[in-house]
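Recall that a protein's primary structure is simply its ordered list of amino acids. Everything else, from secondary elements to tertiary packing, is in principle encoded there. The following example makes that idea concrete.
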Amino acid sequence: MIRRFLVLLATTLALMGCSGMKIEDFAGKTPVLKIDEYFLGRTRAWGIFEDRFANLRREFTVDIEGKWEGDEFVLDEHFDYADGEKDRRVWRLRRVGTDRWEGRTEDAIGVALGHQVGNAFSFKYNINLKMGERRLAVHFDDWMYLQPDGLLLNRAYVTKWGFDIGSVTLAFKRVP
């Protein structure tokens, strides 16, 4: 009983120290990121997935085609993994405010929520992530940061039941 209480207390104290980043912290930062402008047309990304112990697990490239279809901004993503696996995901984003988006894709659980301020975009969603032959329901806390030379950096934190699974790091560059 005492041991359980101490574990609970330690966990609570550890979580209290985690304030987390807020999208409002990026107000006024430039260059201003507008998702529908940055991803309109062709974009290429290079990425890695590291597990919670910082072991590199996957390397990949993503070719993205962004276009408007009515009031939806469609991102058609084609993944090419270093191990030869290929995958595709199509996001359908809808603007729900001047700086807010909602997104849907086939393997998402519910609706993804996006918020852009200054040079940053925060995108949070739950998804059935393909892992080998099975799928695992995980949460993504995705952060993108536009740099002055047009490079877009992306860091996504992947969790399950609040526990770290790993992280994804990407660098995007528009294709002329």
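The first strand starts at residue 41 and ends at 51. Residues 5-19 have pLDDT under 50 and may be disordered.
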